[in-house]
Inverse folding.
């Protein structure tokens, strides 16, 4: 307790003497990475990247980006709080993930932009031009594979010699570490536990992700863009995958690894992982909003009546919305896809969209559950 | 030197292994691929567009290569590891303390992390080039299952060092199974599955219990994860990989514009 008081008084654990500029950058980074701002600004960033894709696909842009990122990284490395989390041996792959996903996103965007321009001019795509020529597997392909393999093995060996695989204290089921984190590749799902109950975040959504991935080739009836990079010929598919993979999956893994500390509280990259950081829990169920706030009555005792507003809202969302938009806004889509494909797609898509909807409602009106029936472990 | 090389190449032993001359003619280059069981995963000729690194990113190949590295290093680690609650931690600790410049555990751990990343990037590339479109729909599905298997392989391996990180990561991960609808004891609908006041689904028989063979992450879970990690999942993954590669060939090779 004394320790907590001391840290509170000193304004955080890592007492560093920063100049005003350094302190400003750090404060800004802590401010910006807060989940609400982070999610909103990264959605805006993705929109900007696609809208100005010609600019963002230039070589000097990515070079400047990586130079800046490296510079920031070196600067941040001096900070004890950032250093403590970034130098954990098991976090090295997360940095590799960050760099490779950004690089390859850029590379695919660049090739898509070039291909789209060539198509506009009536020329064949980069791939189309080369695909007419055939080369012998030996030596052309075999040598590429060999070189990749040798370089990769060398890199892995150097990494393995430089950094020893950690081993913590022996397992003790009585002592729970704080924070307790799932393996890093599941941290996106653990992040969703903030907004959804385990049966959705841990069971339903992963199942839908797998089913949804499997369904992609059967739902995407657009014959274009097969075997080459393009954006203009399949904009929805590309944006959808960027949002799903880069924004939700990968960036939540990074957020969960670096910015979630004790009690799964949020900590900025330059913030001390204070065990006693308090986050007020003021979340309210939809039923409370409806009965207490809107009608001014106490909530009914019968769970089904009590939760009726949420049940109606969700039934409307999942059952009424698809046929409604199918008959009006997305008439063309239904005609192209057929009824079965459209309905499967809409239900998977509505679950996907429910995630940002729930997050937005949590951030704006502190919504806890649409339907809150802890009696049956049925909370949505 | 040249004479010696020629002598070796003309010997019966050499000729019994390589049934073609030096691969610098079209005929010999064809034979080099066709007569080699590993190389014949590839067609004799490939589209020039399909072998560009800027197109394929080499992520599928690296994933397969990592699988081989992990099989090899994993095999070596199995010599020194006993999957029991008393010995597991001790054995891993000994590997670190008593082996000078030991890199097997490191290569296994960092390689496993990397394999998850390369699988994701491979899927990312395949999506962005629309390579799941006909006729490759089925192979995309095989790939999705391989992705899940990669995560399961990594997840089961996570427990084996039997340290705090391992046990609690698996605890957090498998806690989700408690909430499985109908099949987990804290899942929606589980309470409906009861008869005469007797619950069919409780902490002692739900899916989490099945995963861990116990109510918490204990010795039963360790053995179960060990067997799945070292035998079960690799076998399934290897089989599906064979299907995956076969279908890449049958569906028209590395994707390219039609």
């Amino acid at each position: 307790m004394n320790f907590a008081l001391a840290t509170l008084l000193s304004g955080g654990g890592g007492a560093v003497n920063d100049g005003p500029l350094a302190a400003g950058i750090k404060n800004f980074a802590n401010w910006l990475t807060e989940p609400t701002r982070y999610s909103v600004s990264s959605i805006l960033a993705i929109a900007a990247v696609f809208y100005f894709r010609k600019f963002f696909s230039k070589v000097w842009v990515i070079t400047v980006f990586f130079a800046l990122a490296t510079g920031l990284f070196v600067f941040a490395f001096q900070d004890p709080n950032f250093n403590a989390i970034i130098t954990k041996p098991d976090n090295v792959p997360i940095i590799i993930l960050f760099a490779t996903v950004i690089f390859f996103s850029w590379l695919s965007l660049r090739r898509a932009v070039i291909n789209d321009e060539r198509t506009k001019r009536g020329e064949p795509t980069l791939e189309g031009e080369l695909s007419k020529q055939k080369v012998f597997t030996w030596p052309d392909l075999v040598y590429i594979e060999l070189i990749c393999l040798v370089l990769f093995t060398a890199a892995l060996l150097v990494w393995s010699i430089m950094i020893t695989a950690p081993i913590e204290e022996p397992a003790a089921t009585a002592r729970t570490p704080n924070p307790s984190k799932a393996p890093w590749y599941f941290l996106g799902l653990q992040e969703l536990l903030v907004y959804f109950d385990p049966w959705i975040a841990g069971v339903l959504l992963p199942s839908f992700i797998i089913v949804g991935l499997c369904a992609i080739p059967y739902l995407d009836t657009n014959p274009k863009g097969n075997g080459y990079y393009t954006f203009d010929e399949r904009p929805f598919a590309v944006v959808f995958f960027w949002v799903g993979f880069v924004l939700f999956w990968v960036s939540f893994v990074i957020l969960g690894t670096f910015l979630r500390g004790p009690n799964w509280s949020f900590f900025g990259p330059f913030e001390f992982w204070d065990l006693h950081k308090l986050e007020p829990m003021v979340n309210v169920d939809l039923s409370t909003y409806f009965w207490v706030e809107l009608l001014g009555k106490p909530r009914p005792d019968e769970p089904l009546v009590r939760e009726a507003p949420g049940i109606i809202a969700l039934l409307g969302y999942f059952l009424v919305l698809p046929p409604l938009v199918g008959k009006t806004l997305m008439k063309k889509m239904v005609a192209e896809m057929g009824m079965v494909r459209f309905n499967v797609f809409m239900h998977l898509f509505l679950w996907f969209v429910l995630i940002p909807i729930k997050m937005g409602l949590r951030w704006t009106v502190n919504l806890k559950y649409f339907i809150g029936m802890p009696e049956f472990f049925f909370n949505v | 030197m040249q004479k010696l090389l020629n002598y070796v190449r003309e010997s019966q032993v050499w000729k019994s292994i390589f049934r073609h001359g030096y691969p610098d003619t079209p005929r010999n280059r064809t034979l080099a691929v066709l007569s080699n069981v590993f190389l014949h995963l590839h067609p004799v000729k490939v589209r020039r567009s399909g072998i560009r690194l800027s197109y394929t990113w080499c992520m599928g190949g690296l994933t397969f290569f990592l699988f081989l590295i992990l099989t090899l290093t994993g095999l070596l680690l199995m010599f020194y590891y006993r999957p029991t609650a008393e010995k597991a931690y001790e054995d891993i600790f000994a590997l670190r303390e008593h082996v000078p410049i030991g890199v097997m555990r490191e290569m296994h751990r960092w390689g496993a992390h990397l394999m998850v990343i390369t699988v994701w990037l491979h899927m990312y590339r395949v999506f962005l080039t629309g390579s799941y479109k006909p006729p490759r729909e089925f192979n995309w599905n095989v790939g999705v299952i391989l992705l899940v298997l990669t995560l399961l392989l990594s997840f089961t391996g996570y427990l084996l060092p039997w340290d705090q990180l391992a046990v609690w990561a698996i605890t957090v991960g498998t806690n989700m199974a408690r909430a499985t609808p109908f099949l987990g004891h804290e899942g929606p609908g589980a309470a409906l599955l009861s008869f005469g006041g007797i619950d069919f689904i409780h902490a002692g028989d739900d899916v989490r219990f099945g995963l861990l063979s116990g109510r918490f992450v204990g010795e039963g879970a360790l053995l179960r994860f060990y067997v799945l990690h070292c035998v079960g999942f690799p076998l399934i993954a290897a089989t599906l990989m064979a299907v995956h590669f076969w279908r890449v060939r049958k569906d028209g090779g590395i994707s390219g514009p039609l």
Notes: Chain B touches chain A through 102 residues (CB under 8 Å).
